[in-house]
Backbone:
């Protein structure tokens, strides 16, 4: 009998060694890893934010450098081999120059490839001076012409001869950061007002809900136009950036506030909340320590899905001319360059290049948000 008990105890010990107790965040991560599309989208989003952080290091040309001769120059292709005079082919990463000809009849410029002009390209090249991460002075760039006096327009040039590629890279910082800042503002307002509405109820709930309904009933574009019109034209770009961020956040927080209110209404009569209240905790401690952490994964999923909406809002405002204005560079201000038919016909890359970046960023952020939401939902399979 004792031998059987000992054998059973050994089996229990072996079983305990193999069992792993996972916390809620570990379970969310395990479910998220099964969502392949969300995983790859997360990688793309991380690369986009890496581009935003290392903007000056990746941009081969200063974004405000103009060239009258290169106005509306089409994108230059990258070539890998050159043909020598003896007919042999040699590996050389390069781009070919462009010849500009003026059609005096149609009054337009035409560009043709200049086969005789070779512009060598390379990695870790020297160019214009900037501050790496805003701290260290440097002239090293990841990719560009090996000769600092040469200029290559890999995604073409705009109406002032500015490099579209460099402007898209630096515009990534503004467009992607405005989504994060806008979501942060929406998080604070949404959790505070939604939490107060759901936790206290009564006249506080009614007042906050009527305020939310009033904001949601106002048409979005006229509201944005009215708020943007109040921005003084002589404000510095940085102040304008933060004001536009707040304007974009004026609508986004209402959805989160409604969701937080619903969660608080369902949680405030739960046993663990009643126990915390009987234990002498204040209302603020109950909300911060027990209620908000209990559905923090849902809040993160909601915020992840809100970031692309913020990016689209900034793009729409800037495209309509009521958001960010030059000299600030964002994807929306770049799209504004392609507002007229003439620009689209002569330089379609002005629409394609920033438009493609917006589509990629919004789709990957949505896929990432869907994956986080499914992983945070305990009832999802």
Residues:
């Amino acid at each position: 009998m004792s031998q059987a008990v000992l054998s059973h105890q050994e089996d229990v010990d072996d079983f305990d060694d193999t069992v792993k107790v996972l916390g809620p965040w570990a379970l969310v991560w395990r479910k998220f890893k099964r969502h392949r599309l969300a995983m790859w989208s997360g990688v793309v989003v991380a690369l986009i934010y890496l581009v935003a952080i290392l903007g000056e290091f990746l941009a081969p040309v200063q974004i405000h450098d103009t060239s009258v001769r290169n106005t509306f120059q089409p994108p230059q292709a990258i070539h890998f081999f050159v043909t020598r005079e003896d007919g042999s082919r040699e590996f050389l990463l390069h781009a070919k120059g462009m010849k500009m000809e003026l059609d005096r009849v149609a009054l337009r410029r035409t560009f043709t490839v200049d086969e005789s002009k070779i512009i060598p390209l390379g990695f870790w090249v020297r160019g214009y001076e900037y501050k790496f991460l805003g701290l260290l002075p440097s002239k090293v760039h990841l990719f560009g012409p090996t000769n600092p006096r040469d200029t290559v327009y890999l995604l073409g040039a705009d109406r002032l001869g500015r490099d579209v590629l460099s402007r898209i890279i630096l515009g990534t910082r503004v467009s992607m950061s405005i989504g994060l800042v806008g979501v942060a503002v929406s998080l604070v307002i949404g959790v505070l007002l939604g939490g107060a509405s759901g936790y206290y109820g009564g006249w506080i709930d009614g007042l906050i809900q009527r305020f939310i309904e009033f904001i949601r009933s106002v048409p979005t574009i006229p509201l944005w136009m009215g708020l943007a019109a109040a921005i003084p034209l002589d404000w510095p770009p940085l102040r304008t950036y933060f004001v536009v961020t707040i304007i974009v956040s004026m609508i986004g927080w209402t959805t989160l506030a409604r969701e937080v209110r619903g969660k608080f209404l369902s949680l405030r009569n739960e046993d663990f909340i009643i126990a915390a209240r009987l234990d002498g905790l204040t209302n603020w401690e109950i909300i911060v320590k027990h209620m908000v952490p209990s559905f923090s994964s849902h809040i993160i999923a909601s915020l992840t899905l809100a970031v692309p909406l913020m990016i689209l809002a900034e793009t729409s405002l800037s495209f309509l001319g009521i958001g960010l204005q030059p000299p600030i560079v964002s994807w929306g201000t770049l799209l504004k360059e392609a507002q007229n038919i003439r620009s689209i016909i002569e330089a379609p890359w002005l629409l394609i290049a920033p438009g493609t970046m917006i589509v990629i960023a919004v789709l990957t952020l949505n896929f990432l948000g869907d994956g986080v939401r499914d992983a945070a939902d305990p009832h999802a399979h």
The mean pLDDT is 81.
